[in-house]
Specification:
globular, 4 helices, 11% helix, mainly beta, 268 residues, Outer membrane phospholipase (ompla), Chain C, twelve-stranded antiparallel beta barrel
Length: 268
């Protein structure tokens, strides 16, 4: 409940000021930040148990809005993003992220199931820009090691709110509603069960498996300090929600919250 209240407060504040779409560009294009924060999330996809941990982070960001090609690059914790094209109509990015996988020690219900190794994922993100700061898009990712075997996709509608605080600082709030799809390899790994003394054989097919409402806020606090707040709620649906891992021992309701404070070391 307290996480939901925090989400409402920051979501309301993000719309309290007037939007400024075309304002002064920042003087410096490259920024280096260090910081740390915490994450509270399910121990694995479909779990009813949670994990909470603190972590340090480095945030590298390059952005030049005077260019339409290769104008943005970002590394933030386990995620990376390179913009190939970005103009008034659409954007196309290359993305990378680290998946922490699933281990038998994460929950007693997993003792007779194979572990899911942590792995790097890569993919593309396409976003078509609509009037009034809305956009439609999709992101498709697959594993780097077994490229093309497991495929996961998000189809989303988002609204972004921008305010330039100073030449170098921007307030951003992005709210999105997305629909998650997984192919059969992805669905079987995360929601399938083998036939053994505890489970019956369950092999879900490819399809949409979740609906997610997410809100991400980046706000300057001082000239060098900013905060990042990321709140997600995902509802598992379809054959994912019907899995015994979710129906009996887990939960279709997946909440996560990330809060990070970052300090700017330098920019140029």
């Amino acid at each position: 409940m307290k996480y939901f209240l925090v989400f409402l407060i920051f979501f309301s504040l993000s719309f309290a000021s007037l939007s400024k779409d075309e304002v002064d560009r920042p003087k410096n294009n490259f920024h280096v930040h260090v910081g740390g924060g915490f994450i509270s999330k399910p121990t694995y996809l479909g779990s009813s148990s949670r994990r909470f941990f603190w972590f340090p982070t480095v945030f590298l960001n390059y952005q030049d809005k005077d260019k339409n090609y290769l104008n943005s690059f970002e590394i933030f914790g386990p995620q990376a993003n390179l913009t190939i094209i970005d103009n008034n109509r659409f954007s196309f990015d290359l993305v990378g992220e680290y998946d922490f996988g699933r281990q038998s020690g994460d929950d007693n219900s997993l003792t007779l199931l194979e572990d899911i190794d942590s792995s790097y994922q890569t993919g593309v993100d396409f976003e078509y820009k609509l009037p009034y700061n809305f956009s439609l898009g999709t992101e498709v990712v697959t594993g780097v090691k077994d490229f093309g075997d497991q495929i996961e996709a998000d189809f989303f509608l988002s609204y972004s709110h921008y305010i330039w605080i100073t030449f170098d600082q921007i307030f951003v709030n992005k709210t999105s509603l997305s629909y998650q799809y997984g192919n059969s390899d992805f669905m079987n790994e995360w929601f399938g069960t083998p036939a053994n003394q505890k489970y019956t054989l369950y092999k879900p097919s490819s399809g949409f498996y979740g609906l997610t409402l997410a809100n991400k806020l980046i706000s300057p606090i001082t000239e060098r300090i900013s905060i990042v707040l990321d709140v997600d709620y995902q509802r598992l649906i379809g054959e994912a929600a019907d899995s015994r891992l979710v129906e009996i021992q887990g939960s279709p309701n997946q909440y996560s919250i990330m809060f990070v404070g970052i300090f700017e070391l330098y920019s140029f």
